[in-house]
């Protein structure tokens, strides 16, 4: 699905209809003003012609009742539009979140996590102003001025002509001086966003800046570059704001022309323009009161202009997350059975071929391997030989183009992946630890008791990692495992894998890479303890680890 | 609310009070020109009708009102243009000042503690909060000021026409315009906070869903994590719904206050006209002026919600907006000593064992010491203490001149989104290009530079993006060479580099280690062999040490990772 193909109208017909209804309700509220204006003008006419003051009471009540109606219509439009727009945002988020796990974590072309987060969180929220402000404003701009123009036309064709001349001139002049400048100002606003980038960039390297004693200089540099940006931005805005001045000028001139014509007409100096008869004070005031409302929807629409760009960018970002994956994963997962005891798994790879999307050659071709239950096998080979890819194929994290993976004789596919994974444990080269407690990082939401946790930590020699930290198991880990060394993170990940007691197959991807000697030994020791009575497939560069396996397969 | 916003308001006020007041005044002028335009138009029409009815059409002066109407149309246009320019200029100036102040606020020791563990969350939060503060003047302060000024001047004008005419606007509009933003901001505080937290949770969980996909799938928890993302969206929707309800309610209230003022003005003027206290044209002027005055109050609805956001942001950023405290000075080390740590203990609250426990470490001028030990033995804590990022619970730290004047090189050297030259000038702001090129050459960066067509003007990406890790380390070395500092702190300078690159870098580094003291924190043998002395850290204190040539030296090196 391409960005252009994500059409809200076809994907969310009901919600978009509601947003249109919100626009219609807003337009209706704008049109109620016609009734209020007629009452107001009639009352002033009465005052001028000597009617008693009590004559104003009924119209006043009428105006108030109509005001309540307008308030109700506006509130209803606001709520209806918001609820529909929010439903669209939620459904798009859901669709993206449902689609994300279909991308293989080994697919290099899958959306980057930073991009996923920014599209799902703040960008998706930018759809709201676009849907709730811009869309209804556009509808209102089409309806309200047209109706008002017709009402004015019924009174006087000259006044209607004055409005008609002013109104189309606005878009024309705005297009002439505005649009190009507006694009420039959008770019400039994006650069202002870059100011935040500058601040964040420097905050990220604060340690370095402090170490170099460059804090003061950087603060001054920050300010100077913000000042420079301000001068550039103002140069652009000086032109861009001409368009809002033009809008103001024609709206004001429209009112002025209507007022002048009506005044001169009432004096008898312009005795034409009212379909043969003469205008009354009531109809003259009525038209004057309608004139500002004629221009109001145009101004509201102009004010919502920026919402559109942000909304369309968000939609394009979401569309990218909704594209089908180039390298899919086998779906299916089941919670491990905590009561089950490990039964070592038999693993058979037959004629496996795999190629990453967009690459010229197979990373794995015609690969076969049989691993007996309980056997420990090391895959040894240079980087890029496809060791990690093979491990991912066994776990169903990638799907082979040729050949089959059999686990205990059962081919690995969509229907068997869940049961198979419940009997696997995985230890990755770069385990993901999220910001949260050790407890939450170990459990990953699975149900295990305290005793099982401690046993797993013990097995992974990770007990001291936790004990040394403030708060113990309840103590915190930073984003992506910040605050832990590589060896500590690896041991926590090993404990996490060890929690699945039902695992009959352990897959370990470079478990000792980039570790100091002691940490590497601790991880290897824990891994072998865990693998006792289980099948183990490990990829490694480490000759010391490979030597401790039953068999070494070179790629 | 004022207590939270006051540091910010003071900052704004000190900086640009004239521009701030001028912008609000121009905003009010635009609105007042609109009030006068519609009022005068209403008066003109009614007066011409009255003149026609009285048969005085021929003597009616049409020139002055007509000119007035045209003039007001132009004044409104000009004032609007000026207002846009002045308010945006003021906003951009504030933006510059605010970022400078925030940066200084965060640059104090410990302030960036949260930054170290959860940088992404903090930086995201900061972006949202700074944006909220940016719009405080343009969307909140200036419109409220302008609306109140318009209401007061409008009341004054109506009072001059007849005192009774002033009351509807004074009693209905002014309180509504003054109190409503305050009330909405208060009521919005909770949902705003919940919205911010839900958005942060949504973001963090989405990152975890994508980054930790393998772990989730293999643990059978991918669906559960996807549900967690969507649960954050549900909370976000609830908070946004609460804010939208508030918006709908406050919008209706504000609207009805304006309409009530209009209706009461209508009734009052009808009575006054009947009593012949005012003429019908004056009544029309009053009515249309009041009607046009309502325009000033429309922006307050959005402003009220923005005020809620800004309030929350100011509350969170408050401590960073105050003037920063000075770093507590370190003791001065005696002549010939580059670093002396005596009996230093460091204890994180809630932790079982202290990280450092009575540590004694001294480095002589010109000496190179390698600090080795298991992960978690407290090596990085020592670096943080020396750099002034942490304070010891017990013991003393002495440095030459008592200031942490150091050079810091780590496995993740911070490079900035700036030109190559500016990245180097951090270390030596006054250095000439020739000195920069010499340093780059000494660090072995010249071949890389030769491939850059823009030379020193080449811009680096975020975090030095665009350079390989070996090139990054070389650049960091060049930067270090430019800085005359008595103590170099090297934190695993070749970790993560392949063997050939690492050896190459160490060959460039080695001859530069003389002339100053060096502390290398490492678990790599290739780094530790450069040192005159190896110190083994265990359980927060020095367990063993050996100089080059000592019999135990080789044994200490053997526990390190070979390559």
TrEMBL record, chain A:
CDD domains: ABC_6TM_AarD_CydD (cd18584). InterPro entries: AAA+_ATPase, ABC1_TM_dom, ABC1_TM_sf, ABC_transporter-like_ATP-bd, ABC_transporter-like_CS, ABC_transptr_CydD, P-loop_NTPase, Type_1_exporter. It is a multi-pass membrane protein. It is found in: Cell membrane. The chain crosses the membrane at residues 56-73, 137-154, 160-179, 239-266. Keywords: ATP-binding, Membrane, Nucleotide-binding, Transmembrane, Transmembrane helix. Residues 22-310 form the ABC transmembrane type-1 domain. Residues 347-555 form the ABC transporter domain. It holds the Pfam family ABC_membrane. It comes from the Bacteria. This is Thiol reductant ABC exporter subunit CydD. It comes from Teichococcus aerophilus.
Automatic annotation (TrEMBL), chain B:
Residues 339-560 form the ABC transporter domain. Residues 21-309 form the ABC transmembrane type-1 domain. InterPro entries: AAA+_ATPase, ABC1_TM_dom, ABC1_TM_sf, ABC_CydC/D, ABC_transporter-like_ATP-bd, P-loop_NTPase, TAT_signal, Type_1_exporter. It is a multi-pass membrane protein. The gene is cydC. Pfam families: ABC_tran. Keywords: ATP-binding, Membrane, Nucleotide-binding, Transmembrane, Transmembrane helix. The chain crosses the membrane at residues 20-45, 51-75, 136-159, 165-185, 252-272, 278-297. Its main location: membrane. This is Thiol reductant ABC exporter subunit CydC. It is found in: Cell membrane.
């Amino acid at each position: 699905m391409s960005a252009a193909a994500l059409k809200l109208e076809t994907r969310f017909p009901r919600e978009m209809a509601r947003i249109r209804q919100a626009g219609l309700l807003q337009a209706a509220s704008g049109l109620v003003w016609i009734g209020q204006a007629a009452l107001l003008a009639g009352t002033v006419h009465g005052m001028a012609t000597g009617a008693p003051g009590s004559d104003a009471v009924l119209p006043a009540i009428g105006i108030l009742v109509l005001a309540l109606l307008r308030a109700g219509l506006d509130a209803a439009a606001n709520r209806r539009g918001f609820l529909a727009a929010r439903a669209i945002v939620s459904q798009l988020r859901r669709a993206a979140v449902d689609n994300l796990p279909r991308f293989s974590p080994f697919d290099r072309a899958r959306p980057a996590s930073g991009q996923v987060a920014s599209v799902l969180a703040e960008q998706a929220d930018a759809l709201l102003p676009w849907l709730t402000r811009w869309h209804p404003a556009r509808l209102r701009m089409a309806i309200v001025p047209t109706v008002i123009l017709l009402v004015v036309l019924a009174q006087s064709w000259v006044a209607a002509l004055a409005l008609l001349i002013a109104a189309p001139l606005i878009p024309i002049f705005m297009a002439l001086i505005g649009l190009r400048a507006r694009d420039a100002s959008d770019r400039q606003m994006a650069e202002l966003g870059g100011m935040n980038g500058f601040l964040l960039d420097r905050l990220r390297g604060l340690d370095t800046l402090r170490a170099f004693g460059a804090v003061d200089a950087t603060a001054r540099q920050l300010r100077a570059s913000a000042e420079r940006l301000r001068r550039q931005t103002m140069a652009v805005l000086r032109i861009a704001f001409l368009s809002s001045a033009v809008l103001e000028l024609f709206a004001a001139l429209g009112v002025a022309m209507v007022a002048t014509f009506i005044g001169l007409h009432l004096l008898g100096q312009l005795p034409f323009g009212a379909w043969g008869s003469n205008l009354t004070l009531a109809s003259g005031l009525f038209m004057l009161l309608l004139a500002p409302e004629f221009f109001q929807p145009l101004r509201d629409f102009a004010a919502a202009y920026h919402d559109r760009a942000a909304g369309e960018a968000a939609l394009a970002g979401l569309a990218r997350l909704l594209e089908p994956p180039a390298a899919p994963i086998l779906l299916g997962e089941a919670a491990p059975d905590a009561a089950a005891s490990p039964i070592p798994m038999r693993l058979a790879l037959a004629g496996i071929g795999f190629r990453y999307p967009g690459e010229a050659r197979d990373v794995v071709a015609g690969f076969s391997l049989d691993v007996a239950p309980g056997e420990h096998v090391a895959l040894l080979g240079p980087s890029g030989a496809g060791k990690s890819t093979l491990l991912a194929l066994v776990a169903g994290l990638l799907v082979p183009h040729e050949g089959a993976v059999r686990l205990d004789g059962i081919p690995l596919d969509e229907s068997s992946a869940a049961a198979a994974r419940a009997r696997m444990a995985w230890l990755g080269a770069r385990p993901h630890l999220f910001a949260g407690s050790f407890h939450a990082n170990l459990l990953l939401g699975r149900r295990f008791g305290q005793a099982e946790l401690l046993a797993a930590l013990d097995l992974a020699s990770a007990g001291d990692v936790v004990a040394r930290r403030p708060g113990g198991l309840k103590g915190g880990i930073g984003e992506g495992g910040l605050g832990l060394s590589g060896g500590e993170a690896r041991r926590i990940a090993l404990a996490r894998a060890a929690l699945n007691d039902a695992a009959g197959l352990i897959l370990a991807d470079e478990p000792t890479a980039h570790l100091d000697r002691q940490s590497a030994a601790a991880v290897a020791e824990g891994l072998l303890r865990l693998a006792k009575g289980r099948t183990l497939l490990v990829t490694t560069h480490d000759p010391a680890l490979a030597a401790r396996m039953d068999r070494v397969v070179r790629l | 609310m004022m207590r939270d916003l006051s540091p910010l308001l003071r900052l704004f006020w000190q900086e640009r009070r004239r521009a701030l007041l001028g912008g609000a005044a121009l905003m009010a002028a635009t609105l007042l020109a609109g009030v006068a335009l519609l009022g005068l138009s209403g008066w003109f029409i009614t007066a011409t009708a009255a003149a026609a009815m009285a048969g005085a059409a021929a003597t009616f002066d049409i020139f002055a009102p007509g000119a007035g109407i045209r003039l007001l149309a132009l004044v409104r246009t000009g004032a609007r243009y000026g207002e846009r320019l002045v308010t945006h200029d003021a906003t951009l100036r504030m933006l510059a000042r605010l970022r400078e102040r925030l940066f200084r606020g965060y640059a104090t020791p410990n302030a960036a503690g949260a930054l170290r563990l959860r940088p992404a969350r903090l930086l995201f939060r900061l972006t949202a909060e700074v944006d909220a503060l940016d719009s405080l003047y343009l969307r909140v302060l200036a419109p409220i000021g302008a609306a109140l000024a318009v209401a007061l001047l409008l009341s004054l004008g109506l009072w001059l026409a007849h005192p009774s005419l002033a009351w509807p606007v004074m009693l209905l509009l002014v309180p509504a315009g003054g109190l409503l933003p305050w009330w909405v901001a208060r009521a919005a505080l909770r949902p705003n906070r919940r919205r911010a937290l839900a958005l942060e949770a949504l973001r963090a969980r989405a990152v975890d869903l994508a980054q930790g996909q393998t772990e989730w799938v293999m643990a059978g928890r991918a669906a559960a994590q996807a549900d967690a993302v969507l649960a954050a969206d549900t909370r976000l929707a609830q908070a946004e719904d609460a804010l939208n309800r508030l918006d709908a309610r406050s919008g209706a209230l504000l609207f009805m206050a304006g309409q009530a003022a209009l209706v009461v003005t209508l009734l009052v003027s009808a009575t006054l006209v009947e009593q012949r206290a005012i003429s019908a044209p004056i009544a029309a002027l009053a009515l249309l002026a009041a009607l046009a005055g309502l325009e000033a109050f429309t922006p307050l609805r959005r402003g009220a919600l923005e005020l809620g956001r800004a309030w929350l942001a100011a509350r969170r950023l408050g401590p960073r907006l105050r003037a920063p405290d000075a770093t507590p000075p370190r003791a001065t080390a005696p002549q010939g000593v580059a670093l002396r740590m005596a009996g230093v203990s460091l204890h994180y609250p809630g932790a079982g064992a202290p990280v450092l426990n009575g540590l004694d470490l001294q480095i002589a001028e010109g000496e190179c010491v390698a600090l080795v030990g298991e992960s978690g033995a407290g090596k990085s804590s020592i670096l943080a203490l020396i750099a002034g990022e942490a304070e010891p619970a017990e013991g003393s730290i002495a440095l030459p001149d008592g200031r942490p004047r150091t050079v810091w090189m780590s496995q993740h050297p911070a490079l900035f989104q700036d030109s190559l030259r500016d990245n180097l000038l951090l270390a030596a702001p006054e250095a000439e290009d020739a000195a920069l090129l010499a340093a780059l050459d000494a660090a072995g960066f010249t071949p890389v530079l030769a491939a850059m067509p823009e030379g020193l003007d080449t811009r680096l990406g975020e975090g030095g993006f665009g350079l390989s890790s070996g090139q990054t380390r070389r650049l960091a070395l060049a930067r270090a060479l430019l800085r005359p500092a008595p103590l170099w702190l090297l934190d695993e300078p070749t970790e993560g580099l392949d063997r050939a690159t690492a050896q190459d870098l160490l060959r460039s580094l080695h001859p530069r280690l003389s002339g100053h003291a060096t502390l290398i924190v490492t678990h790599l043998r290739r780094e530790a062999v450069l040192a005159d002395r190896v110190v083994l850290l265990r359980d927060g204190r020095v367990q063993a040490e050996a100089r080059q040539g000592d019999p135990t030296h080789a044994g200490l090196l053997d526990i390190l990772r070979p390559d």
